[in-house]
Amino acid sequence: MICISVYDFSAKMMSGEEKSLADYKGKVLLIVNTASECGFTPQLDGLQKLYEANKDKGFEVLGFPCNQFNNQDPGSNEEIANFCERNYGVTFQMFSKVDVKGENCHPLFVYLTRQVKGMLTKQIKWNFTKFLVNKQGEVIDRFAPQTKPGSFKKDIENAIHA
């Protein structure tokens, strides 16, 4: 199967139910690999603020917990969901824990990393790598883990109004 957009993929939600990303057609997406015990975990607050400010304009944040970097998200899906909601008020869609690199890499992240490479490599190097996807399901930008969510607010607004 040739995949031409993020809409060709699906992923398990925290509940275990499979969700097609085609459900997000026509929306601008920010897809992020998250972790609960990372130095960048406070970015969940910024991601939530971006989501709240833009959700009524056709914007969604999709969080994908990952435990591949220094074992920084060891909890169960339920523990991760509770942590994100309790500590950062997360209401954007969180999916089940996935691998974002290596032989068990989720197909969505294989696709994302092939579309826009990072600073030195296509591979995801750490938690909180962020991919901005336009309304057509095409990856238009990639932001490094240390890039704070508020710093690319304009990019999101431009994608919403494009």
TrEMBL record:
<dbReference type="InterPro" id="IPR036249">
    <property type="entry name" value="Thioredoxin-like_sf"/>
</dbReference>
<feature type="active site">
    <location>
        <position position="38"/>
    </location>
</feature>
<keyword id="KW-0575">Peroxidase</keyword>
<keyword id="KW-0560">Oxidoreductase</keyword>
<dbReference type="InterPro" id="IPR029760">
    <property type="entry name" value="GPX_CS"/>
</dbReference>
<dbReference type="InterPro" id="IPR000889">
    <property type="entry name" value="Glutathione_peroxidase"/>
</dbReference>
<dbReference type="Pfam" id="PF00255">
    <property type="entry name" value="GSHPx"/>
</dbReference>
<comment type="similarity">
    <text>Belongs to the glutathione peroxidase family.</text>
</comment>
<dbReference type="GO" id="GO:0034599">
    <property type="term" value="P:cellular response to oxidative stress"/>
</dbReference>
<dbReference type="InterPro" id="IPR029759">
    <property type="entry name" value="GPX_AS"/>
</dbReference>
<protein>
    <recommendedName>
        <fullName>Glutathione peroxidase</fullName>
    </recommendedName>
</protein>
<dbReference type="GO" id="GO:0004601">
    <property type="term" value="F:peroxidase activity"/>
</dbReference>
